[in-house]
Amino acid sequence: MKLTFRWYGPSDRVTLDQIREIPTMSGVVTAIYDIKVGEEWPLDKILALKKIVNAKGLEMEVIESVPVPEDIKLGTGKRDYYISNYIKTIKNLSKAGVKCICYNFMPVFDWLRTTLAYQNKDGSTSLAYLEEDFKKLDPKNLHLPGWDESYKPEELQKLLSAYQGMSHEKLLANMVYFLKAIMPACEEGDVKMAVHPDDPPWDIFGLPRIVSNEKDYENLFKAVPSKCNGVTLCTGSLGASRANDVPALADKLSKENRVFFLHLRNIRHFGTNDFQEVGHPSPCGSLNMAAIVEALVKNGFDGYVRPDHGRTIWNEPGKPGYGLFDRALGATYIAGLFEEAERRYAK
Q: Which of 86, 308, 326, 333 is catalytic?
């Protein structure tokens, strides 16, 4: 496997110099953030970013993410224009040596938490989802942590209205349309498309979610069997649902060679749908991280891995979930899990 670290570009408080000091780190997972969603990513901008990363001795083989415009998810008359731009971006990324693109197909919100600073017993804070707080939210007057600046109120209401009546079946059909259109470019350029699961993995505000469980994956791969169609196995997103057996999913999907990218993080369940994000090790939460890694390694997984959301610890300032300290701790824990599993299953 290749251990990587999410990096939000030159303006990120976490620097490339800091990232490369983390043991066994091979590269960063990044994106271009100043291109309007739906427009082509120019090759020169991709290469300029890669040059910055490579100059620090790190690779840039994973992009997270190339956002899928809402017009594609909605299946509007503009989708073919945006799909054409997406194909151009895939080709440009391939020319720059990118091997994997993480993306999602979640309507409107690609993640949702009710607090970004849940107070943990150890003194740290983390992202969390509390069902009672969610029930208090008014879809017509939404104020969501992390999303308040993403849409103007009128823009959000217009978008939510556009999705009224959208079924799971129709959303899946729109996703299949998109994937079938881009797969030739992916196959030609050897670029893997790794869909991120719904976060959390259930419908919200009446918006359908279609990448939430084992059955959803079966439907997706039956419809688009290309070897370039696979998943970002996000343990925290899938694990938020008690119905998902994450080690079993890791085993099944890796046997089918569908796991291209791995987001490893732990969560702790409480209440019915409540969960908080915790430290990466298994004893910190509800997920058996060692079993997940063992299932992957046993089946020959050799893709990309990154520690996912970390707690805010040691009074570190910055973006909730994406500080340096706890993610670096998580990275070293992940490296240890893989070292042991790879030793056990060495051929």
A: 308
